[in-house]
Design goal:
- By secondary structure, the protein is α+β, with helices and mostly antiparallel strands.
- It has a single domain, classed as SH3 type barrels.
- 26% of the residues lie in helices and 28% in strands.
- The chain is built from 2 helices and 5 strands.
- It has a 5-stranded antiparallel β-sheet with strand order 4-3-2-1-5, with no helix packed on it.
- The termini are far apart.
């Protein structure tokens, strides 16, 4: 059984790691390299569905607000409402940039 001291240390290191991650701005991009932005239209599910990016979640504060452990895109889909796609899954899930929203 872990001691309270070791549990606190793990929690402290996790917090420090998340703070360090928040200080570095990393652009979230689609597999083609295009920067992801709110309002983008994307193709999902191997082109069978479409969606609109509602949130680009990058900072620790944004992840905490959404109760997430990693950055990614919140996409309003035509098939299931809001769906979160972590950054590492954008290639695997074939999230393809279709069009930029008009300003």
């Amino acid at each position: 059984m872990q001691s309270l001291r070791s549990v606190r240390r793990v929690a402290e290191l996790t917090y420090i790691g998340r703070q360090a991650a928040s200080s570095v701005h990393r652009m979230i991009a689609y597999p083609d390299g295009t920067e992801a932005r709110v309002g983008d239209t994307v193709s999902l599910a191997h082109g069978a569905r479409t969606g609109t990016v509602t949130n680009v979640i990058q900072s620790v504060a944004e992840m905490d607000a959404w109760n997430l452990d990693e950055p990614g895109l919140m996409i309003d889909t035509t098939y299931g409402g809001l769906v979160f796609h972590p950054t590492h899954s954008l290639t695997d899930d074939e999230i393809i940039f279709v069009a930029r929203a008009a300003n």
